[in-house]
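ok trying this again, last paste got cut off
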Amino acid sequence: VVQVGQCGNQIGCRFWDLALREHAKVNKKGNFDDALGTFFRNVDTRFEPPRDIPIGSGREPIASLKARAVLIDMEEGVINENLKGPLGEVFDSRQLITSVSGSGNNWAVGHLQYGRQYREQIIETIRGAAEKCDCLQSFLVMHSIGGGTGSGLGSYVTELLKDEFPEAYRFVTAVFPSDDDDVVTSPYNSVLSLHQLIEYADCVLPVENQALIDICEKINEGGKMKARSGTAISAGSAVQPPKKPFDSMNNIVANMLLHLTASPRFEGSLNVDINEITMNLVPFPKMHFLVPSLTPLYALADVHCPPRKLDQIFTDAFSRQSQLIRAAPKHGMYPSSPLPLRGNLEVSDF
């Protein structure tokens, strides 16, 4: 996982938090198994540098978990906040790349100045993280395309990944700015970033801020009213205001990525490799922008979704209210669409 910029690192922090919660519910014995080994390393911190403990038979106890993540930001604020938080020990200090001045919401500064300045450091850091993988399949890149570091340096990193690791697929979660974004340069940053994503990414999951805001408003409205049984929106403990304005929005994106990566992490009757998503959904190399959708919708981690029928789940998945980007694909056509299901289901149920 490569997290670039303020937005990418905030979403990444929520992703790792939810992933740890999910594995903690499944892995009751505290062993380092294949599921945990997908996104985490088990290291022995008694040595300097810490030594990786192999998975082996899957019965080795967890010593210290380190996320397979590279954190990049040209401002130290967000990364330092993550390191001081409850997940600080999860990130490897040797896989952090920061600066002080930032990119000033300028794509050219992030791409041309910091990209060239930190090129070798970025390559060596990512290569070091990749060499610790037993079988590297793909990169998951998170960044926004409205700011400076996320758009400029994020697209530069995607280009580097294609040059240095041509065999590994590049999945990019790109957060689009809303219509009323207060950054004057965000439209220009977005256009310049999109050109790079078309050329160098294998699969792009576009997420729009305004769509996330609309989803959060619906969730909050659902939390104020008594939700009917089978409703598509669950607020959980959303009646309590979030500590930060973007917490709920980041949590929605993190949940989408968590479900996307569930197949390689857990066993299932119809599991597919994450790379098969690109193989089956991208008809031509540059037509790799997917429409992400999530149902049921929830913004917080501790939710209790009401039981729902399968036909309602499938219907909601194609609803505009469940899409993480404001689009109207029903006015055109779907060349193909995967519907990964999670839960206590059998193949015969659907």
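PB: full thing came through this time. Confidence is low (pLDDT under 50) at residues 224-244.
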